[in-house]
Amino acid sequence: VEIIRVLLVFFLAGYFARCWDVLRHARENRPTLAVLTSRIDIPPVEFTLPALVSVALCLAFFFLQKDMGPALVFACLFLTLYGVARGSAFVPLAGLTLLGAGFAAGYVLGVPHTVGERVSMWLSPWDNLVHGGDQLAHSLWAYATGGIAGTGMGRGDPQFVPAGHTDLILSALGEQWGFLGIAAVFALYAFLVYRSFRIALRARSDYEFFLAVGIGAATALQVLLIAGGSLGVLPLSGVVTPFLSYGRTAMLANFAMFGILLSVATDNPSRPRGHPVGAPIRAATGRPLGPERSSFPFLAPLTVAGVFFALAAAAIVGKAAYIEVFRSGPTIGAGTLVVQADGGRRYQYNPRLQEIMRDIPKGTIYDRNGLPLATSNWSELEKHRADYQALGIDIDRACPRSDVRYYPFGGLMFDLLGDLRTRTRWGAGNTSFVERDSARRLRGYDD
Prior knowledge:
Layout: H1 2-25, H2 34-37, H3 45-64, H4 68-86, H5 90-109, H6 113-123, E1 127-131, H7 135-146, H8 169-201, H9 206-230, H10 248-267, E2 280-282, E3 288-291, H11 296-326, H12 328-333, E4 336-339, E5 345-348, H13 351-359, E6 365-366, E7 372-374, H14 378-383, H15 385-390, H16 395-398, H17 414-417, H18 434-437, H19 439-443
Parallel strand pairs: 1-4
Antiparallel strand pairs: 2-3, 4-5, 6-7
């Protein structure tokens, strides 16, 4: 995937560098397309078709692989570069509309199955029929737990976030760094994209211009898609978060892309202030370095693309503020009604709250003679050591001191008590465990 992304940026940069002038100024005038061209001003088909076919092949490949994240990045990257080359927002907006329609059609028809599930989970993260449909809820729980300043590095629970080291790395980061950390990360990405576009405007050739724009746009699109998906702004898609997600190929590809961008920047000296566009730039020795490419034809469309990315980022950061600052408490305590592993549909709650509940000592369960059957207090067992010995039970062997809950009779009492430590068969409908059914009384409060 990452190799294809790099090669696609090279291909689109080379193609639009050669054809942007034709795409912007030439007009399609074939009589056979008169019905279309009479209403819409389009460039000659032969200059647009190769790029469309190239991107369509990538989309078809990932459609068959059921991996729609990279397909979205590729499609949006093509639309961005086409809009900059064409100097018009019509085709990019039309393309985004078609992408949205494609997702809607995939959701209604259920083809591919992954798209339908992702859209269902996006439309209703707290109540859906998707297997594993709690993924977005886990992401929102992590964000909400972080609050404004986060729990602190190493003090969160990223192990509770599905794919917390790859797809939902921002959720794990948001838990430990909070909203301030998410805002800082977005500011760093915004700086990278801004500098990419600045380098593009100062590039010596059209090819280097589109190469720099492609690198910056690909980075922005990846961040926007995965961050928007993890916060429920967009359907969740499997996209690498540049420089954050774990992965060998992705990390190498991102460093390679920005190494190329740095090469473009260092190879093209900045024009001195007041130096006229198109005039030769001279080195310290007085030798001219060659004419600088005029950035005027691309300044306006690139600015529009930058504004679009900025507005999208602002919407996503705004949703992060809503979840982490204004709705932190209600989101942490929200339950999600999803299909469980056994096929049953039950409520599931924030595992962080469940961990806290496990740490709260539970009351003791006694038999009719006052002998503890289950307890969290070792001293309760010590009081009855002689009684246990009379029954042939050595509490030191039956109940390791490291346990948080002690069951001196072990498996003999499992069908009656259950096991609060492992919660084995906890959700089964044909069980009546005392530990589960009397949980409120044992912990002293109703959740």
